[in-house]
Amino acid sequence: MPDNLQRFLNLKNDVEMAQQKADKATGALEQLLTKLKEDFDCDSLREAKTLLKKLKHEEESSGKKFEAAMQKFEDEWGNGDDIE
Fold it and tell me: What is the CA radius of gyration of the chain?
C-alpha cells in the first residue's frame, strides 16, 4: 500500500509541475501576442508572418532602387576615387 501511495503522490507532483509549466508558457505566449499587437498591430502569428513577408519584399525593392540610383549617380558624377 505505501508504494501505491508514494506512486500516487509522485504522479500528483508531476502533474502539478506540468500544470505550472503550462501556465507559465500560456502567460509567456499571451505577453508575446500582446507585444506583437502593440508593436506591429498583428493579432496572430499568421498576420505577423504575412507582415514580415511584405516587409522583406519592400526591403528588397528599396535596396534595388537604391542600387539603381547609386549607379546612376556614379555614372554621372563618378565614384569618388579621384577626390583627395
Answer: 28
